[in-house]
Predict the 3D structure of the following.
Amino acid sequence: MIIRVQHVVKSFGNVVAVNDVSFDVRPGEIFAFLGPNGAGKTTTIKMLTTLLRPTAGSLELDGLEVTTHQTEVRKRFGVVFQDPSLDSDLTAWENMDIHGVLYHVPRHPRRERCEVLLRMFELWERRDDMVKTFSGGMKRRLEIARGLLHTPKVLFLDEPTLGLDPQSRNQMWTHVQSLRATEGVTVFLTTHYMDEADRVADRIAVIDHGRLVATGSSAELKAQTGTDSLEAAFLALTGTTIRDESATAADQMRQVARVWRR
Amino acid sequence: MTVVFILWLREVKKYLRSRVQIIASLGSPLMYLGVLGFGLGSVFQRAGEGSYLQFMAPGVIGMTVLFTAMFSGIAMLWDRQFGFLKETLVAPVPRLAIMVGRTLGGATVAVLQGTLIFGVTLIAGFRPVSVLAVPLAFLVIALIAVIFSALATAIGSSLKDMQGFQMVMNFLVMPTFFLSGAIYPLEGLPRVLGALTRVDPLTYGVDGVRGVLTGRTHFGVALDVAVLLGVGVLFVVFGAWRFSKIEA
């Protein structure tokens, strides 16, 4: 198992965001965390990527305990957060290059790898342009390319298609699906789009209100609930359709950010 | 070391590319220099204090460094949610290296901005006592820059939302400027005001720069530098500690 999560709890004050969650991710698979906003998906990713400490339970990545082997664990994963983490006042190339330095990739292989990845994600021609001139889809692709620069074993993608138009969304999944063949990387992604989980994921974990409701392939989930679509299966498992929870502080900042970007 | 360097370089590169911002940020120092400098000049002169421009130019330089340094730290709040900071927080490098790189970068930008304003004061008619004083003055300016960049990092690491930004501006940055003796002499102040100016680190910064450049000092340059060094060490340690506690 490349990721092993056992009885993990995360509470903020008296709000329990993640409640006794356990699951395993197999090497090389595309694993999707499916659930509505506020279900605990991002909190789980933040714990797995060393940004948050769990209140209880254990998280392992590539056999290493995440909380006690932070630096070793960080070398082994790449992550694309829900909100952009590119420097928009630098060029695509500079963003890649700084990442390489932060991950101690020596100069020569760094250059080669930057080129390979920028070509793979169709950004090579734009490498010397400022990131602020990029479209949403291009930025997201650049983030994925950057996340792969240090050849991680696991790639975390938190809502990778959020805010993208259908065409870029489609293109994004084609890229993600081809990663297994080209990079052999395990992909852990979160989404609240049922059709996307259905399309790309080998296995899906359904999460709602901080609890894991079911885990299995799309077919297994449908069989388990006796339904014919993942949507119906979700409804049967959680008793609700996917909905939007109330806004958090980050959502409010996101709204301001949207206005400013125009 | 390479990590510190590349993060420092990133800040400096971004600054040099943002021409519009460079010019826009000259606005308020120019206003203080122009309006107060020339507006209060004759009153100051009549009070027998000499040239007001000569007096306040070091204060305006100090103010520029303060504002630039504080702003770079507050921008961190934004950076944490929507920017590059999160990328560095999950990288396999010590938080201390990231904090030092950022803080030195912010401080360098503040010094560059201070240099620009120094040039403007020269054009406006400010005259340092000697050319040799200038490099020494820049050492003091660098200390001011490091102090407030480190403080800004501490604040940027601790704030939770954008509302806090206004609080910091109103209750920290503006008082730090107004209490620093940048625009009025420290002699003969009412007791409470006098005490407040003494706990403001910028007071020693402005007094140091003024002492070196014009020869007029309240505490003496040696004491100023000693206080700045002490506060600098304190704030850098504090900033590094707060930065190590960030949970995104």
The interface with chain B takes residues 46, 49-53, 71-72, 74-75, 79, 81, 83-90, 94, 98-99, 101-104, 146, 249-250, 252-254, 256-257 of chain A (CB under 8 Å).
